[in-house]
Amino acid sequence: MLENLTKKLDSIFKKIRGKGLLTDKNIDEALREVRLALLEADVHFKVAKSFIEGVREKAVGKEILEGLAPGQQVVKIVWKELSRLMGEEGKTIALSSQPPTLIMLVGLQGSGKTTTVGKLARRFKREGKRVLLVAGDLQRPAAVSQLQTLGKGLDVPVMDPGTNKDPVIVMEKGVKQGRKEGFDVVIFDTAGRLQVDEALMAELVQMKSGISPDEILFVADAMTGQTAVDVARKFHEDLGLTGIILTKTEGDARGGALLSIRSVTGAPIKFIGTGEKLEDLEPFHPDRMASRILGMGDVLSLVELAEESYSKEQAEILEKKIRKEEFTLEDFAQQVKQMKKIGGMEKMLDMIPGARNLKVLPDQSRIEKEMKHVEAIISSMTDKERRIPSIINGNRRKRISRGSGTSVQEINRLLKQFYQAKKMLKRMSTGKMKGLGQMMSPFG
Fold first, then answer.
1. What is the mean pLDDT of the chain?
2. Which residue segments constitute the domains of the chain, with CATH numbers given?
């Protein structure tokens, strides 16, 4: 996500940091490069111009030019302006004081609306809310069945439109059912088109009038860049959007939509989709995203992701095992699964300050392959072998190798990694752990 822009800004600011004093000329040269980097990232030209003017106004002056570490001060100004550009502070969905809260998702076909309905439903359910899904997309073939499949997987009810072909009537029935059965949240899926047309907008305006939603969220494909921004502006003009959800951000190396859409529409980005799985939906925090863009990491989001995938009770049980030296291969496999849940090593690196500046970065594809092999090897062991790996002799290794489709050398390497991890975790539990290199050591 935003990889190209991050690399270019990092290169520009390295030059600035290397100068003891900054002149107006130095700053102008740097800002010219920043403006070009923004335009190459598909940021709207008016947004790029406004951003550069904001930075220049604060950066060109006696305080910066004569201050300590002027390069760092310029980076701080850019961080503040990036945060301001994306909305300054995160906005979430405000639940109605009189349930149910009605949330209507709109957007073009293919933007990921139906999947996002499922992601939101999962999020609310984990917060203890009763959620009802309403299939208002009666245009796209299989849209209703797709939503029903998502609902079944989440154990969330989906209101069946039956033979009714009028989405406005279906959505009005959804509101009635939500109120009658005491749901906390009702989420409405709606039809999209390949492009904005009058028939689509008229239908959506009718829906809005029919159900009076608390939230109208525009779902946009981040990879379409300026197209997403222009379409969002049109939807905002006609519907009055309360927020935006950007999908497919994990594949958006440029970042034009992310950096432009808030400024152009005025509607806040509330969530970003970071993958295809239902758990891949993150609340959007402009200040944290600005830190990621500038390579400063995002520790708070990393902690939140870890907390979401690993309960307090699980953490306490694991800590007791480590302290008593009862950490087993089964626990080791569980840690591998937790890392995958968080998003893998690559996602973690994006959130750890300074990690991207390491001279030698872990090979993500190799790590993913190793993780799969670890799970296969441990699955091929007996319960006793997982609990007491010291009993795994030559014959057992050959049997495990055949069962997991791996080599004896890989099993030897895994056992070595396990003992290293066990030792490392013991040190962490006693407060002796230091350094990012050690933290990554189990996977090279």
1. 80
2. 3-85 (1.20.120.140), 101-285 (3.40.50.300), 302-443 (1.10.260.30)
